[in-house]
Protein backbone atom coordinates (compact mmCIF):
# COMPACT_ATOMS: atom_id res chain seq x y z
CA UNK A 1 0.00 0.00 0.00
CA UNK A 2 2.72 2.44 0.94
CA UNK A 3 4.15 2.14 -2.53
CA UNK A 4 1.19 4.15 -3.77
CA UNK A 5 2.22 7.19 -1.73
CA UNK A 6 4.94 9.61 -2.74
CA UNK A 7 8.11 8.72 -0.88
CA UNK A 8 8.21 12.03 0.97
CA UNK A 9 4.79 11.41 2.49
CA UNK A 10 5.77 7.92 3.62
CA UNK A 11 8.82 9.36 5.34
CA UNK A 12 6.68 11.91 7.10
CA UNK A 13 4.19 9.45 8.53
CA UNK A 14 6.17 8.23 11.53
CA UNK A 15 6.61 11.81 12.69
CA UNK A 16 2.88 12.44 12.46
CA UNK A 17 1.88 9.54 14.68
CA UNK A 18 3.83 10.61 17.75
CA UNK A 19 1.78 9.32 20.63
CA UNK A 20 2.37 8.17 24.14
CA UNK A 21 2.80 4.48 23.37
CA UNK A 22 5.75 5.11 21.15
CA UNK A 23 9.28 5.80 22.27
CA UNK A 24 11.13 6.73 25.43
CA UNK A 25 12.72 9.50 23.38
CA UNK A 26 9.51 11.43 24.05
CA UNK A 27 10.07 11.37 27.82
CA UNK A 28 13.85 11.29 28.44
CA UNK A 29 13.39 13.27 31.68
CA UNK A 30 12.65 10.04 33.61
CA UNK A 31 15.98 8.40 32.80
CA UNK A 32 19.37 8.92 34.44
CA UNK A 33 21.86 11.04 32.52
CA UNK A 34 25.24 9.76 33.75
CA UNK A 35 27.99 11.90 32.21
CA UNK A 36 25.19 13.95 30.63
CA UNK A 37 23.96 11.15 28.36
CA UNK A 38 20.39 9.95 28.67
CA UNK A 39 20.78 6.25 29.42
CA UNK A 40 17.81 3.92 29.05
CA UNK A 41 17.72 0.53 30.74
CA UNK A 42 18.04 -2.24 28.12
CA UNK A 43 15.10 -1.85 25.74
CA UNK A 44 13.73 -4.97 24.09
CA UNK A 45 12.72 -4.07 20.56
CA UNK A 46 10.46 -6.96 19.57
CA UNK A 47 6.98 -5.54 18.76
CA UNK A 48 5.49 -7.33 21.80
CA UNK A 49 7.18 -4.65 23.93
CA UNK A 50 5.75 -1.13 24.11
CA UNK A 51 7.52 1.96 25.40
CA UNK A 52 4.99 3.98 27.37
CA UNK A 53 5.48 7.58 28.43
CA UNK A 54 3.01 7.45 31.30
CA UNK A 55 0.67 10.42 30.97
CA UNK A 56 -1.98 11.41 33.49
CA UNK A 57 -4.25 14.44 32.95
CA UNK A 58 -2.02 15.64 30.13
CA UNK A 59 1.21 15.49 32.15
CA UNK A 60 4.06 13.00 31.83
CA UNK A 61 4.90 11.36 35.16
CA UNK A 62 7.21 8.37 34.42
CA UNK A 63 7.98 5.73 31.80
CA UNK A 64 7.26 2.01 31.45
CA UNK A 65 8.45 -0.77 29.17
CA UNK A 66 5.43 -3.08 28.85
CA UNK A 67 5.34 -6.70 27.70
CA UNK A 68 2.00 -7.08 25.86
CA UNK A 69 2.27 -10.89 25.75
CA UNK A 70 2.85 -11.34 29.47
CA UNK A 71 0.63 -8.28 30.15
CA UNK A 72 2.98 -6.96 32.83
CA UNK A 73 5.61 -4.23 32.80
CA UNK A 74 9.26 -5.19 32.38
CA UNK A 75 10.14 -2.01 34.28
CA UNK A 76 9.04 1.50 35.23
CA UNK A 77 11.61 4.31 35.31
CA UNK A 78 11.18 7.52 37.27
CA UNK A 79 12.85 10.47 38.83
CA UNK A 80 12.77 10.46 42.62
CA UNK A 81 11.15 13.46 44.29
CA UNK A 82 11.06 12.30 47.92
CA UNK A 83 8.49 10.62 50.06
CA UNK A 84 5.05 11.98 49.62
CA UNK A 85 2.88 13.79 52.07
CA UNK A 86 0.34 14.35 49.32
CA UNK A 87 -1.31 11.00 48.83
CA UNK A 88 -4.15 12.42 46.79
CA UNK A 89 -5.56 9.39 45.02
CA UNK A 90 -8.85 7.95 43.91
CA UNK A 91 -7.69 4.33 44.15
CA UNK A 92 -9.15 3.56 40.71
CA UNK A 93 -6.88 1.65 38.34
CA UNK A 94 -6.38 2.97 34.83
CA UNK A 95 -5.44 1.20 31.61
CA UNK A 96 -3.44 2.40 28.60
CA UNK A 97 -5.87 2.98 25.70
CA UNK A 98 -3.22 3.06 22.98
CA UNK A 99 -2.04 -0.49 23.64
CA UNK A 100 -5.30 -1.79 22.20
CA UNK A 101 -6.66 1.20 20.27
CA UNK A 102 -3.95 2.90 18.20
CA UNK A 103 -5.80 6.24 18.06
CA UNK A 104 -6.95 6.00 21.69
CA UNK A 105 -6.28 8.70 24.28
CA UNK A 106 -2.61 9.31 25.11
CA UNK A 107 -3.66 9.68 28.76
CA UNK A 108 -4.04 6.69 31.03
CA UNK A 109 -7.82 6.20 31.25
CA UNK A 110 -10.55 4.25 33.01
CA UNK A 111 -11.14 0.84 31.49
CA UNK A 112 -13.43 0.97 28.44
CA UNK A 113 -15.24 -1.56 26.26
CA UNK A 114 -12.47 -2.13 23.71
CA UNK A 115 -9.73 -2.88 26.18
CA UNK A 116 -8.56 -6.33 25.54
CA UNK A 117 -5.81 -8.46 24.28
CA UNK A 118 -2.67 -6.45 24.90
CA UNK A 119 -2.95 -5.58 28.57
CA UNK A 120 -4.16 -6.68 31.98
CA UNK A 121 -7.67 -5.70 33.06
CA UNK A 122 -9.00 -5.07 36.53
CA UNK A 123 -11.03 -8.28 36.47
CA UNK A 124 -7.92 -10.40 35.90
CA UNK A 125 -6.92 -9.63 39.48
CA UNK A 126 -10.30 -10.21 41.14
CA UNK A 127 -10.14 -13.28 43.42
CA UNK A 128 -6.69 -14.09 42.05
CA UNK A 129 -5.08 -14.06 45.48
CA UNK A 130 -2.53 -11.54 44.20
CA UNK A 131 -2.08 -7.84 44.77
CA UNK A 132 -1.56 -5.40 41.96
CA UNK A 133 2.02 -4.61 42.92
CA UNK A 134 3.11 -1.08 41.99
CA UNK A 135 6.45 -0.74 40.22
CA UNK A 136 6.44 3.04 40.67
CA UNK A 137 5.55 2.94 44.37
CA UNK A 138 2.45 4.73 45.58
CA UNK A 139 4.07 6.47 48.48
CA UNK A 140 6.70 8.29 46.47
CA UNK A 141 5.97 11.74 45.27
CA UNK A 142 5.08 12.17 41.68
CA UNK A 143 6.20 15.49 40.45
CA UNK A 144 2.66 16.78 40.46
CA UNK A 145 1.54 15.61 43.87
CA UNK A 146 -0.87 12.90 42.95
CA UNK A 147 -0.52 9.18 43.49
CA UNK A 148 -3.24 8.52 40.91
CA UNK A 149 -0.74 8.17 38.08
CA UNK A 150 0.84 5.11 39.72
CA UNK A 151 -2.55 3.39 39.60
CA UNK A 152 -2.38 2.13 36.07
CA UNK A 153 -2.38 -1.54 35.25
CA UNK A 154 0.67 -1.03 33.03
CA UNK A 155 2.59 -0.07 36.22
CA UNK A 156 1.32 -3.15 38.09
CA UNK A 157 2.04 -6.86 38.19
CA UNK A 158 0.73 -9.73 40.33
CA UNK A 159 2.49 -9.63 43.67
CA UNK A 160 2.20 -12.13 46.52
CA UNK A 161 0.37 -10.15 49.25
CA UNK A 162 2.85 -11.15 51.94
CA UNK A 163 5.75 -10.04 49.73
CA UNK A 164 4.03 -6.70 48.97
CA UNK A 165 3.32 -6.08 52.62
CA UNK A 166 6.58 -7.17 54.20
CA UNK A 167 9.88 -7.79 52.37
CA UNK A 168 9.25 -5.54 49.35
CA UNK A 169 7.58 -2.83 51.43
CA UNK A 170 10.59 -2.81 53.76
CA UNK A 171 12.94 -2.32 50.82
CA UNK A 172 10.82 0.44 49.25
CA UNK A 173 10.90 2.32 52.54
CA UNK A 174 14.61 1.68 53.08
CA UNK A 175 15.44 2.99 49.59
CA UNK A 176 13.22 6.05 50.03
CA UNK A 177 14.82 6.87 53.39
CA UNK A 178 18.31 6.54 51.97
CA UNK A 179 17.53 8.69 48.96
CA UNK A 180 16.09 11.42 51.19
CA UNK A 181 18.95 11.48 53.70
CA UNK A 182 22.22 10.29 52.14
CA UNK A 183 24.35 13.35 51.20
CA UNK A 184 25.16 11.77 47.81
CA UNK A 185 21.47 11.67 46.98
CA UNK A 186 19.61 14.25 49.05
CA UNK A 187 18.84 17.29 46.93
CA UNK A 188 20.55 15.73 43.89
CA UNK A 189 19.01 14.26 40.73
CA UNK A 190 18.01 10.69 41.62
CA UNK A 191 16.66 8.11 39.19
CA UNK A 192 15.02 4.81 40.05
CA UNK A 193 14.09 1.84 37.88
CA UNK A 194 11.90 -0.95 39.23
CA UNK A 195 11.17 -4.11 37.27
CA UNK A 196 9.91 -7.67 37.19
CA UNK A 197 11.31 -10.95 35.91
CA UNK A 198 8.50 -13.07 34.47
CA UNK A 199 7.58 -16.43 36.00
CA UNK A 200 5.92 -19.52 34.54
CA UNK A 201 2.38 -19.08 35.82
CA UNK A 202 -0.44 -16.61 35.24
CA UNK A 203 -3.53 -15.22 36.89
CA UNK A 204 -6.77 -15.69 34.96
CA UNK A 205 -4.73 -17.44 32.25
CA UNK A 206 -3.64 -13.99 31.04
CA UNK A 207 -1.34 -12.07 33.34
CA UNK A 208 2.12 -13.40 34.13
CA UNK A 209 3.04 -13.76 37.80
CA UNK A 210 6.60 -12.41 38.10
CA UNK A 211 9.16 -14.64 39.74
CA UNK A 212 11.18 -11.63 40.94
CA UNK A 213 10.87 -7.91 41.60
CA UNK A 214 14.00 -5.78 41.34
CA UNK A 215 14.89 -2.13 41.82
CA UNK A 216 17.94 0.10 41.41
CA UNK A 217 18.71 3.76 41.95
CA UNK A 218 21.37 6.15 40.71
CA UNK A 219 22.19 9.45 42.45
CA UNK A 220 24.09 12.00 40.35
CA UNK A 221 25.58 15.35 41.23
CA UNK A 222 24.71 18.62 39.50
CA UNK A 223 27.30 17.84 36.82
CA UNK A 224 25.71 14.45 36.14
CA UNK A 225 28.58 12.52 37.71
CA UNK A 226 27.24 9.34 39.36
CA UNK A 227 27.74 9.58 43.13
CA UNK A 228 26.01 6.52 44.48
CA UNK A 229 23.96 3.61 43.20
CA UNK A 230 22.67 0.23 44.35
CA UNK A 231 20.42 -2.61 43.28
CA UNK A 232 18.01 -5.01 44.99
CA UNK A 233 16.18 -8.15 43.92
CA UNK A 234 13.70 -10.44 45.69
CA UNK A 235 11.60 -13.47 44.89
CA UNK A 236 7.86 -12.90 44.62
CA UNK A 237 7.02 -15.48 47.30
CA UNK A 238 5.81 -15.67 50.90
CA UNK A 239 8.53 -14.92 53.49
CA UNK A 240 10.81 -13.60 50.80
CA UNK A 241 14.19 -12.06 51.48
CA UNK A 242 15.34 -9.24 49.25
CA UNK A 243 19.00 -9.38 48.22
CA UNK A 244 20.72 -6.03 48.41
CA UNK A 245 22.00 -3.42 48.53
CA UNK A 246 24.42 -4.67 45.86
CA UNK A 247 26.39 -2.78 43.23
CA UNK A 248 24.35 -2.23 40.07
CA UNK A 249 26.85 -4.33 38.08
CA UNK A 250 25.97 -7.30 40.30
CA UNK A 251 22.25 -6.75 39.71
CA UNK A 252 22.92 -6.46 35.95
CA UNK A 253 24.77 -9.80 36.07
CA UNK A 254 21.90 -11.51 37.91
CA UNK A 255 19.29 -10.09 35.53
CA UNK A 256 21.32 -11.19 32.50
CA UNK A 257 21.77 -14.82 33.60
CA UNK A 258 19.75 -17.79 32.38
CA UNK A 259 17.44 -17.80 35.41
CA UNK A 260 16.34 -14.24 34.71
CA UNK A 261 16.21 -12.44 31.32
CA UNK A 262 18.82 -14.76 29.78
CA UNK A 263 20.11 -11.89 27.67
CA UNK A 264 22.46 -9.02 28.42
CA UNK A 265 20.60 -6.49 30.53
CA UNK A 266 21.79 -3.32 32.20
CA UNK A 267 19.78 -0.91 34.31
CA UNK A 268 21.99 2.17 33.86
CA UNK A 269 24.12 1.16 30.87
CA UNK A 270 26.98 0.22 33.17
CA UNK A 271 27.54 3.90 33.98
CA UNK A 272 26.14 4.13 37.49
C1 LIG B 1 7.77 -11.07 27.50
O1 LIG B 1 6.81 -12.08 27.31
C2 LIG B 1 7.23 -13.19 26.54
C3 LIG B 1 6.04 -14.09 26.32
O2 LIG B 1 5.63 -14.73 27.49
C4 LIG B 1 8.37 -13.88 27.26
O3 LIG B 1 8.84 -14.96 26.46
C5 LIG B 1 9.49 -12.89 27.49
O4 LIG B 1 10.52 -13.50 28.26
C6 LIG B 1 9.00 -11.67 28.22
N1 LIG B 1 10.09 -10.71 28.29
C7 LIG B 1 10.53 -10.10 29.40
C8 LIG B 1 11.72 -9.26 29.26
O5 LIG B 1 10.01 -10.23 30.48
C1 LIG C 1 0.73 -3.28 48.61
O1 LIG C 1 1.30 -2.73 49.76
C2 LIG C 1 1.15 -1.32 49.89
C3 LIG C 1 1.86 -0.92 51.13
O2 LIG C 1 3.23 -1.08 50.97
C4 LIG C 1 -0.30 -0.95 49.96
O3 LIG C 1 -0.45 0.46 50.02
C5 LIG C 1 -0.99 -1.49 48.75
O4 LIG C 1 -2.36 -1.24 48.85
C6 LIG C 1 -0.74 -2.99 48.65
N1 LIG C 1 -1.39 -3.45 47.48
C7 LIG C 1 -2.58 -3.99 47.53
C8 LIG C 1 -3.21 -4.30 46.23
O5 LIG C 1 -3.12 -4.24 48.59
UniProtKB/TrEMBL annotation:
Keywords: Signal
Domain ENPP1-3/EXOG-like endonuclease/phosphodiesterase: 59-267
Signal peptide (from-to): 1-19
Taxonomic lineage: Eukaryota, Metazoa, Chordata, Craniata, Vertebrata
Matching Pfam families: Endonuclease_NS
Molecular function GO labels: hydrolase activity; metal ion binding; nucleic acid binding
SUPFAM superfamilies xrefs: His-Me finger endonucleases
Top-rank taxon, per record: Eukaryota
Species whose genome carries this gene: Aldrovandia affinis
Residue stretches making up the DNA/RNA non-specific endonuclease/pyrophosphatase/phosphodiesterase domain: 58-263
Record-linked InterPro entries: DNA/RNA_non-sp_Endonuclease_sf, Endo_G_ENPP1-like_dom, ENDOD1, ENPP1-3/EXOG-like_nuc-like, His-Me_finger_sf
Protein name: Uncharacterized protein
